[in-house]
Amino acid sequence: MEAVGAGLVDCHCHLSAPDFDQDLDHVLQKARKANVVALVAVAEHRGEFEKIMELSKRYSGFILPCLGVHPVQGLLLQDQRSVTLKDLDEAVPIIEKYRDQLLAIGEVGLDFSPRFANTDEKKEEQRQVLISQVQLAKRLNLPLNVHSRSAGRPTINLLLEQGADKVLLHAFDGRPSVAMEGVRAGYFFSIPPSIIRSGQKQKLVKQLPLTSLCLETDSPALGPEKQVRNEPQNISVSAEYIALVKGISVGEVIEVTTQNACKLFPKLQQLLQK
Q1: Could you tell me the sign of the dihedral formed by the alpha carbons of 229, 235, 237, 238, in that order?
Q2: H or E segment and range at residue 179
Q3: Is residue 42 predicted with pLDDT exceeding 50?
Q4: Nearest Cα residue to 152 out of 200, 119, 219
Q5: Residue pair 45/107 in contact by the 8 Å Cβ criterion
Q6: Nearby residues of 221 by Cβ (< 8 Å), 6 or more positions away
Q7: Rounded CA gap, 80 and 115, in Å?
Q8: What is the pTM of this model?
Q9: In whole angstroms, what is the distance from residue 214 CA to residue 193 CA?
Q10: What are 168's strand-pairing partners?
């Protein structure tokens, strides 16, 4: 597959986050200046679905929408809790409504952090919510944009059992040996700018082939500096650090990761060719 230009693709960011309400235009201008050609905007809960769809209309061809139900629900930190099947039931009709406009289903996955999934029942309900969304993605013929905090192996095992094929594991926090099981299944792994302060992400990049890597920012989280709002323009930090670890040029990292993003997201390939 030919690389379509040499622009960068942010495969996972939260542009509907309140952090960007005041200056999104400016943030996007900076991203364009940094040679970002597409931003994959993911959802966490149904309350932001309409906002994401509206942003994808306003910035058509630049912000590409994903809708899905995240394993952790609740807007405010103190309200956060493990997802329930009721959360999913309320979201599915909206996902169905926008099915033809979506780039992928996401952000979906498992989060077995003890403060959210402190019982087997909560973990099992998360699994059921994810299984339903894997099946939904298969039915709609859409890729999956996946979260797997403290649940690397269970997430990959579930995806394999359910026959998921087009998968992005974002900011994977498990061991490289577990990630390699995903690589063998053809899954992609996106790397955020926080790699510069994460030994685990550095080990991951060292061991995973470039042909399995994509770039992401997870803005406004996972930036190069802790506690500082992350932005899509920082995607270059990910590219530069991968180049450093792999001992190759930044240009090669950008070219291959953008090719990978196009393989993962067929609609992106069509958009970038226009």
Answers
A1: positive
A2: helix 176-184
A3: yes
A4: 200
A5: no
A6: 14, 192, 230
A7: 9
A8: 0.96
A9: 12
A10: 145, 188
